[in-house]
Amino acid sequence: MADSEQQVFRLPRPLRLESGAVLSHVEVAYHTFGRLNASRDNVVWVCHALTANAEVESWWPGLFGVGTHFDPADWFVVCANVLGSCYGSTGPLTSNPETGTAAYHEFPLLTIRDLVTAHEALREHLALPRVHTLIGGSLGGQQAVEWAIQRPSLFENLVLLATNARHSAWGIAFNEAQRLAIFADPTYEQATPDGGAAGLRAARAMALLSYRSYDAYGRTQTEPNDEVLQDFLASSYQRYQGDKLVARFNAYSYVSLSRSMDSHHVGRGRGGVATALGRIQARTLIIGISSDVLFPPAEQQVLARHIRGATYAEMDSAYGHDGFLIETAQITHFLERFYVQTYVH
User: Fold this and answer.
1) 3-state secondary structure (DSSP) of residue 316
2) What Gene Ontology terms describe what this protein does at the molecular function level (predicted)?
């Protein structure tokens, strides 16, 4: 298996969701990069964040790609789009073959565990008996830690960045505020591909405040002209970022996946967070970000405390939560130190 164009895996049977609802037709879009070696032990599986896609080299270029830590010359990299997204996997805008229509705002609730179930089916389809490294940040980290609990013997190494064991009241409140902006857009209820676009634009502007930091805005968006009374750099930046997301995403997927994130709780039905994390067998590296206000380092320290033998590292970054996508030199440094404990690679 070499580098691939986007491929689509169709689950062989309907998917019963944690909520009890059933998705009768499920597809998972995915990419692979590099070649699987003869012993099939060079697999790196990437779990992406909220609005990302399966083309990991496009959004994590300092970590995946030629000349990076996860060079496809050495690794067989798999990245699959999550259910609920709009990048090829089944989501709110996917037409139901039986009805010929999409569900839009009536798409059923997906939990993090449902996202894992779909990707576990893909792993079985690809006949990958062992994964050398499972890695993810933010929502991707939530998926990765849940998967490592469900299948403890499957993963040799687990790398979690800027994520948690249970989505916080703070994080849920941020997500709900963004959804309220979308719901306030009257076009959302019209159930068209462009429905809720104005609300999504506002939601993205709100979300960005949780992704970045006070210092980052101060450094890049402070007005150099003391005479300006309106149309500030920071104002135009928020509009610009809202427009960028509207051009590539949709409000229905945003609502669906933010609700998935809210559902994240590894201790649900397992006797609590500590007991659930105690099931993980993978060697684990957990990376926090000093300036992350959405997933503060205390949340990663909880993971490190309850995953046996876990290594904790913290990045000093002015970029806030987005540091896990930007600070690839620091991440590479931590990865090299982590792997050298056992491996020479």
Assistant:
1) coil
2) homoserine O-acetyltransferase activity
